[in-house]
From TrEMBL:
Cellular location(s): Cell membrane
TM ranges: 36-54, 75-97, 103-128, 135-151, 197-215, 227-244, 256-280, 292-315
Pfam family, one: ArsP_1
Major site of localization recorded for this protein: membrane
Name listed for the protein in its UniProt record: Permease
GO cellular component: plasma membrane
Family the entry assigns: Belongs to the UPF0718 family.
Keywords of this entry: Cell membrane, Membrane, Transmembrane, Transmembrane helix
């Protein structure tokens, strides 16, 4: 429905060419802005409704029954089955944080969700075979778990914006409340949080729209070719500013492989583009402070670089 509206507005009422860069960019901006803000509102509403029965203390008590590694694994697996790009994962991340779920566990979800999803996996299995597809799946989950565990160990909760914890500390268990009171509570939460972040959503998606469809295969082939020992690092650095989902980057990976780029290098570019997109970081800035964003990019970036070199090494043995 949202896609049809965006198409009709841009290519119908405004009359822009479907193949023009400005048409594609505007269509992308309208579609993703509405989609992400709608998703943000829906997720906050239902999480707030749930929080009216289960305050943060109870949520933490449930999670405490699991070992730390198990909680991170569960969050990473949830990321696998949620087909979101990095910007679309942010609203769920916000809901997790304000619900009292440990910060590192929420990051395990945030990292894994854009890197791995079932549609991308089917395409990877079909194009590259089950060995490569399975290795990518395992690597994506591992990056999410490792990244989340490291962030847990660093105790970075102080770098979450204070208003998130103020929401979390409010009395959310409404005793003997009617359903209407709980619904009103959830509506107020939606209004409060969306009012805080919608500008960042538009800024992030707007940047993504400008660079949407940009596939720097030639640049990557030049700086991340087989003969460059720093190829994986170059691929990650080039991939971070871009914005796409895992499915959208697979054709780029095919083009890179055709130009002689090593598999691990191409897949590390894919991971960096999906997990560390600049638009997603802009949206996250409204929730977490710059130092935590920098740590997040560093931890995940280094993990992806390690995966890239590992792929390049083991590809000769499979």
């Amino acid at each position: 429905m949202i896609k049809l509206f965006a198409d009709q507005l841009v290519f119908g009422w405004l009359g822009l060419d479907t193949t023009s860069q400005i048409g594609e960019a505007l269509n992308f901006f309208i579609y993703d802005s509405i989609k992400i803000i709608f998703l943000l509102a829906v997720m906050i509403f239902f999480i707030a409704l749930l929080r009216s029965f289960f305050p943060p203390e109870k949520t933490k008590a449930v999670l405490s029954k699991y070992k730390q590694s198990t909680a991170h694994l569960m969050a990473a697996l949830l990321g696998v089955v949620t087909p979101f790009c990095s910007c679309s994962s942010v609203p769920i991340f916000i809901g997790f944080v304000e619900s009292g779920i440990p910060l590192g566990v929420t990051f395990s979800f945030l990292i894994t969700s854009p890197i791995v999803n079932e549609v991308a996996l089917v395409m990877l299995y079909t194009i590259f075979g089950w060995k490569i597809g399975s290795l990518y799946l395992i690597s994506g989950i591992a990056v999410g778990i490792i990244g989340g565990l490291i962030i847990d160990k660093l105790n970075l909760e102080k770098y979450v914006e204070e208003y998130v914890y103020q929401i979390k500390k409010t009395k959310t268990q409404l005793k003997k409340s009617t359903w209407q009171e709980r619904i009103n509570f959830a509506k107020n939460e939606v209004k409060t949080i969306v009012n805080r972040v919608w500008k960042y959503v538009l800024l992030g998606v707007g940047l993504g729209a400008i660079i949407h469809g940009y596939a720097p295969a030639a640049v990557l082939a030049k700086y991340a070719g087989d003969n460059n020992p720093l190829a994986v690092i170059a691929a990650v650095i080039i991939g971070i500013p871009l914005y796409s989902n895992a499915v959208g980057t697979i054709p780029i990976v095919e083009a890179l492989l055709a130009k002689g780029v090593a598999l691990g290098t191409a897949l590390s570019f894919m991971m960096a583009t999906t997990a560390l997109s600049l638009p997603a970081m802009i949206i996250l800035r409204k929730v977490i402070k710059p130092k935590l964003i920098a740590i997040f990019i560093t931890v995940v970036g280094l993990s992806i670089i390690g995966v890239g070199y590992l792929f390049n090494f083991i590809i000769n043995f499979i």
